[in-house]
Amino acid sequence: MAVDAKQLAAERAARLKAAVELKEPDRVPFTGIGGDVIAAYAGITSYEFNFDYEKQCQAIIKYVKDFPSDQPVIGMTGLGNHVASMAFSDYPDLYPIISRVDGPTNDILGVDYCRFPGRELDENSSPQFIGREYMSAEEYDELIADPVKFCFEKILPRIVRAFRDMKAPEAHAAMARLALEKAKAGAAMRDMFRQLQELGYAPGGLSVFFAPLDFIGDQLRDIPNLIKDLRRYPDKVKAATEAVLEPLLKVSVNAKGPGVETAMIPLHLNEYLSPALYNEFYWPTLKEGILRLAELGMKSQVFFEGRHDAHLETILELPAGWGTAYFEKTDVRKAKKLLQGHTCIMGGIDVGMVISSTPAKLDEYIKEILGEMMPGGGFILAPNIGNLPRETPIENIRAVYEAVEKYGKY
Amino acid sequence: MVSPEMQKLAQERAARMQAAIELKEPDRVPFTGLGGDIVAAYAGITAYEFEFDFEKNRQAAIKWLKDFPADSPVGGIGGLDNLAMSVAFVDFPDLANQFFMVNGPMNDVLNMKFARFPGRQLDEYSSRQFIGGKNMEPEEYDELIADPVKFSYEKILPRIAGNLADLGSPTSLATMARLGMVKAQQAAEMRKTGAALAELGYPTGGGSTFAFAPLDYIGDHLRDLPNLVLDIRRYPDKVKAAAEAILEVLVKWTLQGKAAGAVQAGFPLHLNEYLSPKLYREFYWPTLKEYILRLREEGMRSRLFCEGWHDAHLDTFLELPAGWGIAAFEKTDVRKAKKVLAGHTCISGGIDVGVVISGTPAEIDEYIKRLLGDMMPGGGFILGPNVGNLPRNTPIENVAAVYEAVEKYGKY
Amino acid sequence: MREELLKSFVDMDEQEAVRIARELVESDGGAVAVLETCKEAMEEVGRLFEAGEYFLSELIAAGDMFNQIMEFTLPKLQGDEVASIGTMVLGTVQGDVHNIGKDIFKVMAEASGINVIDIGIDVPHEKFVEAIKEHKPELVGMCCLITLGVDSMKRTIEVIKEAGLRDDIKIIIGGGRVSQAVMEHVGADAWADDAARGVRLSKELLGKE
Prior knowledge:
heterotrimer, A: alpha/beta, two-stranded antiparallel ribbon
């Protein structure tokens, strides 16, 4: 890495770190905005972006070069395979190859909930997660008794076609093929990360953690069933969230690469729950998880999907400086009123605006957000959701970056 | 980029070998070179480093080949034959061959019962060793005959691979993933080694894959050799039926190597010297012969390494069409073989490793001179050591004497 | 019956040989007759091997028959009826973990009346020395299959010399890669690359033939 690239990387990292520490950096840290538009910008299909490592890396580099921000914008390169991560949580070296399913690895595994462009979907669609019920209500006791064993023996065969019979040669061959395929991807990735370093981005990444109830809702029972379970088998659901907490933390440790200090926690069930249910079933183990991650040397970055307004106050139960609250539909201004000086706030750019507005309006929009959110520090500017569709007007994207440049100085 | 001189050298070397295989006289006698444990010793590294560290292995091989160039390269990370695993995964053509040679790092993942590696189960200066073992009961012949692939996968693999003992467990699946990781790393290393060899003027591509006499699969991997020779007397029909069932699977496997670019199949024979001509012809040779002919139909030549004494079975080669391939000998005198096989079979070998270990340079010069004088005329001869491994303490002046003598007396 | 046993044994008729031996061993003095006949048969098998009529598979099969028959014969013999013609310490040398050649040789050597002390595979040099001190053998047999064993045999013999024991014993080396040249190189007294030759030479070294 050239000296100026190194310096640039250090500046960017310092900017993000200052915000997390609730301070005012030199400029507002900006995560950048991207998604499916990265492939479109490079003139390739989403299918190519998801199945051709070299084209994917080239597209990312092109985008990052033209739209620099404080974090590289990678886009959506696959779906999490969280049951596999848990099933193999005692094998940390396997995490890099089993934790995510991308196009080629899904061809090997055949994951029930995955839909990929150019396969099940149109070649310009995004990869999609279509979960369903993989565990019956009668199996709670088994889950509670040993979540890792249960996920391995019962859930994996139901989710992964290649693991339908775990004893079979097909399952064993799939594991070897997975590793060989990931090595191919790894070669392209290493090259991309080297180029990113030259562009002034520090190597790193995020660890990951899930609210225990989300793990049960998204990966095992499916949300509509889980909502019913909360009323029908409240004690079992609670016991299950407690049982999965430890292995989920183990997965977070497995996911923590060298130098990684942040764990991403994407919430899902939060907006489905009343404060009463949230506080009884969801929050206790999520809170415990955040506190435990802190003990493990990781600050949390919680993505509060949908509207989190009803649960905002629970965040104050965490110690000040615990991490970052990333909002989708909850107004960041409203969140700031409550959380200033306690929690770093992230988000602010409504992706809908970027898709449908004009450069002039976007300039005004960003100016306003920054004017309200920057003072006092503790703010990271980001899109409210990670994915800009392919058709997003490039001039709108450029307008956002230019406005951040214009109005983002402290 | 490989220089034009080196490309030319590679072509000359390949042509030399090819001429001998085609029973002709090349410009010089093709020489496979000497190697083995001595390559590591010459580079000042342990056998453990040579077997586990690709970079050190490559540097050692390059150093050796620079000082002792021959018509085919030596070196590279070697391994032990893990045929049962290739058979078990024969329906996965992208994988079956990758599992065949278990080298040190692969064995760290698999923990094969038959394997001993330096710096692990053995002293760090020792050679890797295959110790075999009994992994199948005589009562299981019917199962083996019914479906050799299923039987090898379900029954044998768990018995021979410590970390696949419980198929379907997290450990067995993790082991396969780890094996894939190791293989991916090694593939990258092999490409580097291949490039380094090309720069030294060694041919790339058109390589060799493996093949085994069906009965050797039973003897080496399933029943253990002493048991198999008793089985031949006790359950002759079952042994025969098993050899036939295995033949189909092994041919399929070897042809996967062809699909990956191999033009030759190397058969390391093992049970050959244990058998009387009568037993050899009844149990060993029919499926071996069929195998060679089937490969030939597919355009592949075979190379049979006849371990030990093969004198009693020499004439069986004549049942094969002339120009079928190469017979390499260990203890059988190549002169004697030549009398039977000249004009029909390319002969390989000739240098008794014992002489290289314990002779003097002057004796070796004389020895090679006589050998070449007897063997070169008429062509169809590839000079090589009778076994592949020179021990670490082999005097280097003796090695040099061999190469100098080949240089001196090897011109046609 | 001794004739029949000898014939079926040498002809590799396992079932018949074992059947006759079982019958014979029950008769008066039968155990000694079985032992002697089987030794004679083993010797004949060895001769046939050296003549090129029999191969390793016959040596293995004969060894297996011998062991099967001895299992029910030896318990019926008195100590002095199992006379030994000498003692041999036998092992595969350090660094080599193969046992097949050693095991084939061992049963044939025992059948010829040699008391074999098997000290195993991958035997450290010092362990040979200790075994020589403990068992005071007339003979030491060293095996190796791989070429690495050549160095190892040489060192083992040097260590035996340093311990001052070399003159008390005769050393025979055996295995797939040994030869006259290797024998001279390592400083042994005899060499054999097959079990039958090994047993014949061992008996010669013991002055028994």
